[in-house]
Amino acid sequence: MSSRPTIPLVLIGVTRTTALHTANAFAGTPYYVSAALDKTESPVAYQLSNHNLSVVLHASHPRPRGIITGTAVTGDELRLVERAWEEYKDGILVSRNQTGVWVAISPLYYVYTER
């Protein structure tokens, strides 16, 4: 029996609880949440920042292959996420001949269905 491929993701949301609740959307898919960053729930030193995101991306095992940012992530924060993601993608994923994706859930369009 072959095992199903798994693709680790990093979720970023207003709170850890919100980000991790989003993990339910990946049930039955090859994607799973390997880490979460938040803007308000964790102690300030561990909240979303360019540095903290870079640490999560570079230190996680297995290496994340995607990031999903929630609707509460502002334009300025999206720019810092973009910098960290592009540096990681170009420096780590490309060197390993892997692909990755960043999905920014728009604050103007979001559908959530509780199961």
General description of the model:
With 115 residues, the chain is of the alpha/beta class. It has a single domain (7-104), classed as Rossmann fold. Helix content is 31%, strand content 20%. The chain has 3 helices and 4 strands; from the N terminus they run βαβαβαβ. The chain has helices at 16-22, 50-59, 75-93, and strands at 7-13, 31-38, 66-69, 101-104. It has a 4-stranded parallel β-sheet with strand order 2-1-3-4. α2 (50-59) runs parallel beside α3 (75-93).
The SSE string, one letter per element, is EHEHEHE
State the secondary-structure class.
alpha/beta
* The CATH class: Alpha Beta
**What Rg, in angstroms, do the CA atoms define?**
14 Å
Shape: globular
Please state how the strands of the largest beta sheet are arranged side by side.
2-1-3-4
Topology (elements, then pairings):
Elements: E1 7-13, H1 16-22, E2 31-38, H2 50-59, E3 66-69, H3 75-93, E4 101-104
Parallel strand pairs: 1-2, 1-3, 3-4
Helix pairs in contact: 2-3
Could you give a short description of this structure?
The protein is of the alpha/beta class.
Question: Which key phrases capture this entry?
Answer:
115 residues; alpha/beta; Rossmann fold; four-stranded parallel sheet; 20% strand
